[in-house]
Design goal:
By secondary structure, this protein is of the alpha/beta class. The chain has 10 helices and 5 strands; from the N terminus they run H-H-E-E-E-H-H-H-E-H-E-H-H-H-H. The protein has helices at 3-8, 16-26, 90-96, 100-104, 109-120, 130-145, 156-163, 173-179, 190-210, 216-229, and strands spanning 42-49, 59-68, 71-81, 125-127, 153-155. Helix 2 runs parallel beside helix 5 (109-120), helix 7 runs parallel beside helix 9 (190-210) and helix 7 (156-163) packs across helix 10 (216-229).
Length: 231
């Protein structure tokens, strides 16, 4: 058994070029989380899915945008709809607006996942309620490549109340966006939500710096501690 076979195990059959792309991405070095968040390229991510079950639901769309140099870089963004074997329910479509025809004419999932990870590079990832986005992406990666993404995530849903305990009653992304007057072009569109989440991160990053939390490692640890304290 070759090393590529060991890495992919019982994953679906992939072309050699796709396998090489996946392996090349996995070989990238981990980001230096000791650097300041302000000097690090971060990627804000949002996904749309067929539902909220991590066991039975599927990934429909991925939206992502880079944060670099203290701004959201709209020119450095990613959006794709993954081709579905069948359309999701009408109730589900009403949430994200991706119709049945668009779902079934989406891009091949393997190609979408490869383009996504190549867009990410070795940048740290962030999201609001990051474990859901991370789990759905990991499941898609396991389905198509036999291994999870395994990248570092910052969860703004816990970072925000950790930095601003007087606003801890705010639980949803909408609550925090309202606080700072951040508007969303189209709510529950993966890229639009990723952009709004990125804008929220920049606000929180500034608050964190004023409190002495400068590095990505510090922000990730602060969010993790807040989550543990709430359990």
């Amino acid at each position: 058994m070759g090393w590529l076979d060991w890495l992919f195990g019982k994953s679906p059959v992939l072309g050699d070029a796709d396998r090489r792309r996946w392996v090349a991405w996995h070989a990238l070095s981990e980001p230096d989380l000791g650097r300041s968040a302000a000097s690090t390229r971060l990627v804000s991510v949002d996904v749309e899915t067929t539902g909220l079950s991590l066991e039975t639901d599927r990934l429909i769309a991925i939206g992502a945008v880079a944060i670099q140099g203290g701004r959201v870089d709209l020119a450095d963004s990613f959006y794709a709809v993954l081709r579905q074997p069948q359309s999701s329910s009408v109730d589900n479509i009403l949430v994200h607006g991706i119709g049945g025809t668009e779902q079934m004419q989406g891009d091949p999932p393997v190609e979408v996942m490869l383009r996504f990870v190549e867009f990410v590079g070795h940048s740290p990832l962030l999201a609001f309620h990051a474990p859901f986005d991370a789990s759905m992406l990991d499941q898609a990666a396991r389905d198509h490549f036999g291994s999870r993404l395994g990248r570092t995530w910052l969860d703004l849903a816990w970072l925000a109340p950790a930095l601003l305990p007087d606003d801890a009653e705010r639980r949803s992304l909408d609550d925090w966006l309202e606080k700072y007057g951040i508007t969303v072009a189209v709510r529950h569109h993966a890229l639009a939500d990723a952009v709004a989440t990125a804008q929220l991160h920049l606000v929180l990053q500034h608050v964190a710096e004023l409190q002495g939390h400068v590095s990505m490692a510090s922000l990730i640890e602060l969010a993790a501690q807040a989550r543990l304290a709430d359990q």
